[in-house]
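Record type: monomer structure entry
Structure origin: computed from sequence
Chain ID: A
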Amino acid sequence: MSVIYLLITISIFVAIGFFVAFIVAVKSGQYDDDYTPSVRMLFDDEIKKTPQKQIQTTEKKQI
């Protein structure tokens, strides 16, 4: 039974260590996205939609 307490204690310390490492990485800016803003202007901003009226008329023609 004492082995279970030892394993739980060790796993809690390991989890706290990973959490601290994650917080340090986030605060240092490691997960900041520097690439996407530079190529964002190459992407289309709007999706071109056909008006609802045209869709209805083309459906009627097919039937």
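Annotation 1: The chain has a mean pLDDT of 81.
Annotation 2: The chain has three helices and no strands.
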